[in-house]
Amino acid sequence: TSRRSRGGREKKKSPVLCIGEEQPKNWFTELQVLKGHFDIVRFLVQIDDFRCASAGDDGLVLVWNVETGERLQELRGHSQQITAMTTFTCENGPTSHTSLITASSDRSLSLWDPDTGNRVQTISDLQSSVKCLLVLERLCVWVSGGEELCVWNTDFQLQCQRQNQSDTELPKNCVAAAVDKEIVIYRLTVSTDSSMSLAEIHRLSDHQDRVRALINVSDGLFASGSHAGELILWDAIDWNILGYEHILWEESQACSQAEIRLAAPKPSESVHSHILAAVGSGLYVYSIRTKTVVAYKKVAHDSNVLHTMLLSDSELMSCSEDGSVRMWEIQDLPLPGEPASPGFFGMWTFGRSNKQTGLPSKKVADVPPHIRTLELTGDLIGHSGAVQMFASFGENGLLTCSTDHLLILWKNGERQSHLRSLALFQKLEENGGL
């Protein structure tokens, strides 16, 4: 087994990475800088195995080939910053086509064809900016959330609307929407004439502060987080509270308030029954099954963590305002470590807040015997600004975006070297040698 330093550098076992050979933990040893944006890049959306779309404060949407780093399309149409972006895959018989939906501060929504770069549909002069987008694939509709909650069909025709904010999909054609301190549950009903309506069926008023994060955990669970550090796990069928945690952390110095951010695992990742929570600059791995923190790192970055991802049962990744992207491995804790709260942390990234006056501090329990630690296996340093987000494409690499206006495509250096050697030998063979 190769040895790793804290910076992720490794002693190579062979000059060529062969199929079936054990790969090192951090193989991102080659990078490619992608230029095209001229302002902060905040969003990355995977279109397919080889394409990704990026967007940010310049109003541009760029489509990239993650194998080559080539810029495939430049989608121009928004006059202000992008506030939300998602993919919309519509099944058409045996074939399917993936489109992009974008929302902007210019109070417009656009549907794009990433294959051609054309804007297929657009909606202008909305009453307010859209802050989140949610696709309900089984109904072939999508939802936009801001000051209003609107349901649209594939032709960008408004089906119904309500006054609300952020939202998340729930079972039984239900949608949960955050409205100040409350969570409102709506049921989307499709009538016989194909018209749709949203009916309010329940209100959850258990938060003491404004709900700032709302997302699915699994088919039967969803979670919400408030600005004061409350985190509630809900049953998505009967709306009962399954877990409650009031998370407080020490303020090392006075700082401006930061929004609560979330880190939602993909459905394929949630089968591991772990949720990764970032609290300030710390990382906590929470087990849904045991309702305990099974691994943690109290200070994982020098600044607040902005985005996280569970790669497997034992590996995860995070990026931060400090400009770094870090890779972690869950390992046994050889010695007693720092205490961690055993309560439910959920999947939220809580920025530090000044709104803690008068709130009771939570007693920190002793470290349970089953607790483990997060060992740093790689530190990807390339951006000069805060890393807003990253998207993993497996063996094709990792794409990161930042406030420095750049995207960086991180590659497996040994694999890329091997591919270049194969291409060279193939070219020589075609030309009959030197």
Question: What features would you describe in this structure?
Answer:
This protein has 3 domains: 27-130 and 404-434, Methylamine Dehydrogenase, Chain H; 138-246, Methylamine Dehydrogenase, Chain H (7 Propeller), CATH 2.130.10.10; 252-386, no CATH class. Helices cover 5% and strands 47% of the residues. The chain is built from 2 helices and 33 strands. The chain has a 9-stranded mixed β-sheet, with no helix packed on it. Strand 27 (315-320) and strand 28 form a beta hairpin. The longest helix is centred in the C-terminal third of the chain and has 18 residues, at 413-430. InterPro entries: WD40/YVTN_repeat-like_dom_sf, WD40_PAC1, WD40_repeat_CS, WD40_repeat_dom_sf, WD40_rpt, WDR41. Pfam families: Beta-prop_WDR41.
Key terms for this structure?
33 strands; Methylamine Dehydrogenase, Chain H; mainly beta; four-stranded antiparallel β-sheet; 434 residues; nine-stranded mixed β-sheet; 3 domains
Instruction: Please compute the radius of gyration using only Cα atoms.
Output: 23 Å
Total of domains: 3
What count of helical segments does DSSP give?
Answer: 2
Through-space gap between termini: 39 Å
| Average residue pLDDT | 77
Q: Estimate what percentage of residues fall within beta strands.
A: over 45%
Please count the beta strands (DSSP E, at least 2 residues each). Answer: 33
- Content-based structural category: mainly beta
From the coordinates shown, what is the CATH architecture of the largest domain? 7 Propeller
Strand order of the largest sheet: 22-29-23-24-25-30-28-27-26
What's the CATH superfamily of the largest domain, by name?
A: YVTN repeat-like/Quinoprotein amine dehydrogenase
**Mass-distribution shape:** globular
Please write the CATH class name of the largest domain.
Answer: Mainly Beta
* Biggest beta sheet attributes: 9 strands, mixed
pLDDT under 50 segments (min length 5)? 1-24, 250-265, 267-271, 340-366
CATH topology of the largest domain: Methylamine Dehydrogenase, Chain H
Helix content: under 10%
